[in-house]
Amino acid sequence: MEPTLDLRAALRDMILARRVDTEAIALQRQGELGLWPSMLGQEGAQVGAGSALRPRDVVFPTYREHAVAWCFGVDPVQLLGLFRGTTMGGWDPAERGFQLYTLVIGAQTLHAVGYAMGIVRDGDVGTGDPDRDRAVLVFLGDGALSEGETNEAFVWAAAQNLPVVFFCQNNQWAISAPFSVQSRVPAAQRASGFGFPGVQVDGNDVAACHAATEQALAQARAGGGPTLIEAVTYRRNPHTTSDDDLRYRDAAENDHWRDLDPVDRLRTTLLESGAIDDAFLAAVAAEEQELAERLRTGCRALPVPSHDDPFLHTLHTMTPELARQRDEHLAFVAAGEEGPA
Amino acid sequence: MSTETKNQAMAHALNQALRDELDTDPKVLLVGEDIGELGGVFRVTDGLAKDFGGTRVVTSPLGEAGIVGSAIGLAMAGYRPVVEIQFDGFVFPAMNQIVTQLAKYRHRSEGRVSLPVVVRIPVGGGIGAIEHHSESPEAYFAHTPGLRVVCPSTPQEAYALMRAAIRCEDPVIFLEPKKAYWSKGPVDHAAGAAPREALDRARVAREGDALTIATYGALTATALKAADELAAEGTEVEVIDLRTIAPLDHETVVASVRRTGRLVIAHEASQSGGIGGELAARVQRDAFFELEAPVLRVTGYDTPYPASRLEEEWLPGLDRLLDACDASLAY
Ligand SMILES: Cc1ncc(C[n+]2csc(CCOP(=O)(O)OP(=O)(O)O)c2C)c(N)n1
User: Which residue intervals define the domain Dehydrogenase E1 component in the entry (chain A) (predicted)?
Assistant: First the structure.
């Protein structure tokens, strides 16, 4: 199968998604966000994988898949709500099949497996109809490989030959734990023990990530079962804006990976081959400015939920005791807002 | 679908409820360890795989997190999974999925996504089982907002509540009292699913005006026995089957206590942090001036569940319940 990646579009996506990331970090510094998990350096892996999706596919992300969200059409302003504290989710997962971010490491791998079971039951696998066949793409980190739930997900996906692609971004670190703490073998090698293919790709090569994901998704949609993709990359920023990465790793390591930066690399290649020119880059830069502006105003305009909100969305219908607790709470809040007598 | 009233064991009533829901709604499916050919270790799913096929009654790999976690994904994909945890003591590997995922998704999606998952768990002791096979974990679930916790006491209740649970848009932890699996009672299949409100409401199992006993699950039968004995002495006891532990219908209990002035709460689970404490707190809040005696609790002790040779004394039984009633009446 010939990869279908449009490299100019990929470069644009990577640059714009990176801008989402850098703006979010700036917003965190300004006190507008409580926390931000940066994906700097992982754009190649994420845009590579995200651009291989079709509209009917479903994505189960962790909390760092900002560029995948971008590729799948999730409004980047909505990514900010969870980190600004205005929502526990932020978007409608049913709208595009981009599920909510998962903070509990590994939990989403099993949701992906269950969703894939649903796709099989719906008969939406292996029909040969490109408008019908679907697959699930689930993201995980190298740390998640150690969770029992991830390993259960591998067992289930294998035993039932499910249309699910596990995309592991091995960014070398799980907060302060290096990959060697999680595994003695490359992540991709794990798959064979479970009975399905594992592929290792250069995570900073967007074309390679795209090709591997596209092939794995095609295989899954066709009824060929699961694949584990290990995209070897690097998290260049601290784990989150609260982390101090210099306590556990050497700045020289970071320098090494900066030289392998996926965005710089593609830009240089495309410039050298004449596929893009300065005008192209200027146009993308203008888009970046617009995007940054939209993020800044959009972030500040994110609606603060009402005090009612948690009560309304706890159960499908409110129980009398919860209604009593709500009334008590709303009265308490109202009294506080009136200020001291 | 069967239509007549039958005298049936709770396990069979549950089987019929699952069968009727599988029949009614093609999106319903059952997943669990050994639930297919074997019909589950308690045979609650007996014959269902044969009749509905292995894709609707699925024997899963051995992994509780996988069972609940994949049910979440199935529900996201539009299915209504009813999953079986083989024994109460083995639900803990799935606690992460239940507490951090299943219970919270409605809230996180601002009400957009419902996860209509039923987690069936055989619970409780008194059947001479070995370690990890006699637990009462209901308080863990009841403490987690976003979950419903149901525990039937009779075959009829089991049948009607199971069907209601499967139709409910919320995740339901459905606790099946093992000790009651083989006790029989009339079941009216024609009545179908209990109305959804039944999942919010306690049931008055026997009326009386001298004292209220509030309990649920297998202990309901014991409470009714105690009421019989006290009635022989001329004391009419009201027995309330809580039926659902979350939401906890304290209002029915409060209304009863306003008339009787006395409340004894009974549950098998250990006392500290149990449902009894929550109920007692609410009753004293709402019926403080009507109480003639302190609210008393008859519960399992705050110890690990004992070896089965000791369970008869450890569990709240008829004698301990009668003692508590006497103590309450003596105030
Ligand atoms: C079950 C669980 N345990 C611990 C944590 C705390 N924690 C948050 S992120 C993280 C590291 C995850 O590393 P990895 O899976 O490699 O993903 P990355 O952050 O590198 O993208 C840890 C330990 C958690 N969120 N969930």
Answer: 13-287
CB contact under 8 A, B74 and A312: no
Give the sign of the dihedral formed by CA A244, CA A249, CA A253, CA A257. negative
A59 and B CB contact within 8 Å:
no
Backbone dihedral angles phi then psi of residue B117, each to the nearest 5 degrees: -110, 135
Q: Which residues pair with B7 in a beta bridge?
A: B186
- What ipTM does this complex have? 0.81
Please say whether the beta carbons of B284 and B295 come within 8 A: yes
Q: What is the CA radius of gyration of chain B?
A: 19
Cβ neighbourhood burial of B203 (10 Å; 0-12, 13-18, 19+): buried
Q: Does A306 touch chain B (CB under 8 A)?
A: no
> Closest to B107 (Cβ–Cβ): which among A116, A118, A313?
A313
% chain A with pLDDT above 90: 87
Flag whether pLDDT at A337 surpasses 80. no
Ligand 1 pocket (Cβ < 6 Å) reads A 64, 103-105, 141-144, 171, 173-175, 235, 239
The CB density around residue A44, as the number of other CB atoms within 10 Å, is 29
The stretches of chain A forming alpha helices (DSSP H) are 7-29, 43-50, 66-71, 76-84, 93-96, 107-122, 148-159, 179-182, 187-194, 206-221, 251-258, 262-273, 278-301, 309-312, 320-338
User: CB of B60 within 8 A of CB of B33?
Assistant: yes
How close is the nearest chain A Cα to the Cα of B235, in Å?
32
Identify the three-state secondary structure at position B239.
Answer: strand
pTM of the model: 0.90
B317: its two tokens: 């039984």
Q: State the average pLDDT over residues A305-318.
A: 89
Nearest CA to ligand 1 atom 19: A174
Report A:116-135 residues touching B (Cβ under 8 A): 116-119, 121-122
The residue of chain B nearest to residue A322, with distances taken between CA atoms, is: B247
Selected for mutation to probe chain A from B107, B172, B275 (highest A CB count within 10 Å) is B107
List of residues 6+ apart from B14 with CB closer than 8 A:
B44, B158, B159, B162, B176
State how far Cα A294 lies from the chain centre.
Answer: 21
Task: Tell me which residue in A110, A313, A321 faces B111 most closely, judged by beta carbons.
Answer: A313
- A248 part of the active site: yes
Question: Which residue, among A99, A63, A79, A89, has the nearest Cα to A24 in the 3D structure?
Answer: A79
Euclidean distance between CA atoms A323 and A321, whole angstroms: 5
Strand partners for B30: B57, B82
Sign for the CA dihedral angle at B182, B211, B297, A320 comes to: positive
Q: Contact B280/B265 with Cβ under 8 angstroms?
A: yes
pLDDT tens, residue by residue, A226-245: 999 999 999 999 999 999 99
Taking the centre of ligand 1 as the mean of its atom positions, its distance from the CA of residue A105, in whole angstroms, is 5
Instruction: Please state, for a pLDDT cut of 70, what percent of chain B lies above it.
Output: 99
